[in-house]
């Protein structure tokens, strides 16, 4: 129960969001049934977003623990605004505007006045989104495993072998390119070029953000001494959150074409990601449960392959969310078993709460 205080703002946003959803339903239909229908859709979308975002919270926490308290606060305030309003509202509008060759205002009018046409355009863009997001997330996951300095292994017979090849330049990029070409041969021939170009853009985006992040953080280090994880890490996390959001945004259109209902439901879910991130950082959970981070990156790798597969067949979002949560659950169980066998080692590795780094401030 001590962990519930981390979710105070999430509970408040949930109550306000669901009430607003019910009001939208009542305003649109004038019936209790209509109000309850929109209320229910908002709740389902929130659960969908939360189930898809367990791994997002863990990866955010892993990056945040390297950042200075100032940049931690900036990510958890500005970053959440960008995540909720940028990815859940502006991103679908931008996609429709580009796909339909219209302006953002016209896209907003289309979302309000012709939701079915708006949804059709969004779904037509799914192939490009899946290829781009799948490639970016695959590089995120492989960068964790292709690390020659990685010492802790969960699935040893896989991870130890992968680590041996980590020093080979471009090993993970080669893996992604091979998988990209395999799936490119499986998609409709008319969409093959679109898939490849979108995937290549995803790869370039990852490499650009990774290089830019290192350059910015080096510059920041030079200015403020030992400070780490500044603007570069912030940008990396924002692009990462955007990639995680692709699946939820596209999946939401299976339930409703109303842009505002989607924003409410996914926005509620995004707040829980923020709360989970804060809890993981402040409580030192990633140090306490040594395989939890591994489980998150396996879930990300699986999600990236599923996004590629969605270019060929439909994969239910519920299955995607449950699959990721299951992998993380197994990693947590493995960590608990390890802790029971080596309790003294764990006590020494986890810093005392009172002497740990400055906690993340909550607003």
Automatic annotation (TrEMBL):
Keywords noted in UniProt: Membrane, Transmembrane, Transmembrane helix
Pfam family, one: DUF475
Domain of life assignment: Bacteria
Transmembrane segments: 7-26, 32-54, 75-105, 125-146, 166-187, 193-212, 219-237, 249-273, 294-312, 318-336
NCBIfam families: PRK14013.1-3, PRK14013.2-2, PRK14013.2-6
Listed name of the protein: DUF475 domain-containing protein
Organism: Aurantimonas endophytica
């Amino acid at each position: 129960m001590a962990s519930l205080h981390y979710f105070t703002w999430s509970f408040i946003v949930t109550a306000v969001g669901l009430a607003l959803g019910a009001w939208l339903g009542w305003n649109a239909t004038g019936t209790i049934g209509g109000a309850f229908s929109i209320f229910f859709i908002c709740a389902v979308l929130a659960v969908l977003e939360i189930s898809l975002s367990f791994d997002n919270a863990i990866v955010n926490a892993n990056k945040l623990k390297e950042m200075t308290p100032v940049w931690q606060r900036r990510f958890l305030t500005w970053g959440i605004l960008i995540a909720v309003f940028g990815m859940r509202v502006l991103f679908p509008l931008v996609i429709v505007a580009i796909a339909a060759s219209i302006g953002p205002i016209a896209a907003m009018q289309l979302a309000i006045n012709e939701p079915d046409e708006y949804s059709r355009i969004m779904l037509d863009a799914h192939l490009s989104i899946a290829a781009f997001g799948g490639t970016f997330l695959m590089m995120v996951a492989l960068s964790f495993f292709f690390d020659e300095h990685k010492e802790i292994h969960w699935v040893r017979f896989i991870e130890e072998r992968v680590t041996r090849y980590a020093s080979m330049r471009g090993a993970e990029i080669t893996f992604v390119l091979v998988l990209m070409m395999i799936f490119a041969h499986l998609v409709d021939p008319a969409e093959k070029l679109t898939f490849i170009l979108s995937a290549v853009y995803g790869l370039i985006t990852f490499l650009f953000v990774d290089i830019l992040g290192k350059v910015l953080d080096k510059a920041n280090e030079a200015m403020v001494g030992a400070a780490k994880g500044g603007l570069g890490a912030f940008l990396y996390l924002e692009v990462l959150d955007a990639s995680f959001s692709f699946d939820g945004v596209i999946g939401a259109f299976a339930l409703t074409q109303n842009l505002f209902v989607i924003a409410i439901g996914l926005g509620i879910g995004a707040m829980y990601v923020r709360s989970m991130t804060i809890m993981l950082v402040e409580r030192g959970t990633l140090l306490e449960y040594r395989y939890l981070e591994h489980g998150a990156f396996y879930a990300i790798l699986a999600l990236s392959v599923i996004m590629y597969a969605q270019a060929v067949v439909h994969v239910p979002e519920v299955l995607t969310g449950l699959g990721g949560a299951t992998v993380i659950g197994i990693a947590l169980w493995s960590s608990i078993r390890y802790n029971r066998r080596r309790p003294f080692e764990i006590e020494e590795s986890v810093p005392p709460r009172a002497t740990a780094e400055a906690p993340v401030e909550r607003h």
